[in-house]
Design brief:
The chain has 338 residues and is α+β, with helices and mostly antiparallel strands. The protein has two domains: 5-117 and 276-283, Aminopeptidase (3-Layer(aba) Sandwich); 119-256 and 318-337, 3-Layer(aba) Sandwich (Aminopeptidase), CATH 3.40.630.30. The chain is 34% helix and 26% strand. It has helices at residues 9-15, 68-84, 104-108, 127-132, 136-148, 157-168, 179-189, 234-249, 261-268, 285-299, 331-334; strands at 20-27, 30-42, 45-49, 60-61, 91-95, 112-116, 119-122, 149-154, 193-200, 205-213, 217-225, 252-254, 273-274, 277-283, 335-337. The two termini are 34 Å apart.
Length: 338
């Protein structure tokens, strides 16, 4: 039950400042396990939830014992103690790291357990092995994209934010895009993140991907493309660059969940193997009643009164965010060629 980038205090400070909490279980005067989560109130209801745009969390436990049986008993005991500490919450939900595949303690504590399919690609092999592992069509898309596009690192997160929002059109972002600033600053300072963009010869950006990583995985974290101009292989080219990051670090590439048939077929073309993420949750009757009432209230609001677009993004100094759709002549200022 490993510690991922999403468990790091600096990550949680970036995405949930002042709102994340830690539960610690001790054995013999030392930390035997811990659990990080975000807390909020909904009226008088206490909610334990995943922090914004944080992919996985769950317990972190250092197994003890030389025998499999003793390690299992020890880990189960720690997890049960951590679950007991959440008993006062009206609603609990979290997505577990694939390494946390023992959900017995959650089931014993009355949690519902669901599975999010995911794909992982072990990149501790040669570049040629990884390349040959791609579907033929995917290799061809990447080859053609290389003829038209250059992959560059975007150094200014404001450019990524503006590009991301521009590609949404009238749709609202599912998260507060302003969080990208803090995440990018914290991750790049520690050499644990990079925004890459696929740019044509005219300086027009076709797609951009924000990758983050820890000691074990490179995550396909945030992705966006301009559907009006994007080369059909732009995103595939960027994913291949992410796989190359993982190969050079001798770790695994995480495709970050496959919830639709279309996404599954696209991601499966890069190779990899199945690895489930477990989604665990527990709800009290009074929370469920409150949720149903709120859902009914929202359903009575006319469509024209609902928010349809994300708030404008501005720099902290009040200047307008730079555009990423056409970087030239600022290309050398905002990016560096890979």
């Amino acid at each position: 039950m490993r510690k991922s980038i999403f468990h790091e205090p600096w990550w949680l400070d970036a995405v949930a400042p002042g709102r994340w909490r830690e539960i610690i279980a001790e054995r013999g005067g030392r930390v035997a396990g811990y659990l990080h989560y975000a807390e909020r109130m909904m009226g008088n209801l206490r909610i334990c939830e995943m922090p914004p745009i944080t992919r996985v969390l769950g317990p972190v436990i250092e197994p003890q014992g030389s025998k499999t049986e003793s390690r299992l008993r020890y880990s189960h005991s720690i997890m049960q103690e951590l679950m007991d500490a959440l008993a006062a919450f009206d609603h609990v939900e979290m997505t577990l790291d694939p390494a946390c595949n023992d959900v017995a303690a959650f089931l014993a504590s009355g949690y519902d357990v669901r599975i999010m399919p995911n794909l992982l690609l072990d990149c501790r092999v040669s570049e040629e092995t990884l390349w040959q592992g791609l579907r033929d069509k995917t290799r061809n898309l990447i080859r053609r994209a290389r003829e038209r596009l250059t992959v560059s690192e975007i150094l200014d997160p404001e450019a990524f934010i503006a590009f991301y929002l521009g590609n949404l059109g009238e749709d609202a972002s599912y998260f507060d895009v302003n969080l990208v600033r803090a995440i990018h600053a914290a991750a790049t300072t520690r050499d644990q993140g990079r925004i890459l963009a696929a740019i044509d010869g005219d300086g027009v950006v076709h797609a951009a991907v924000f990758f983050v990583w820890d000691a074990d995985y490179v995550y396909y974290y945030l992705s966006t493309r301009d559907k009006c101009v994007a080369d059909t292989g732009a995103v595939s080219l960027l994913i291949w660059e992410g796989i190359e990051i993982a190969r050079k670090r001798e770790i695994t590439f995480d495709f970050d969940g496959v919830m639709t048939e279309q996404r599954y077929k696209f991601m499966a073309a890069f190779g990899g193997h199945h690895a489930a993420r477990y989604l665990v949750s527990r709800t009290t009757p009074r929370f469920e009643k409150q949720r149903q009432l709120r859902g009914l209230a929202r359903s009575l609001v006319p469509d024209w009164m609902r928010q349809k677009s994300a708030p404008p993004v501005a720099r902290p100094d009040g200047e307008a965010a730079p555009t990423l759709h056409r970087l030239s002549p600022r290309l050398t200022e905002l990016s560096r060629a890979i």
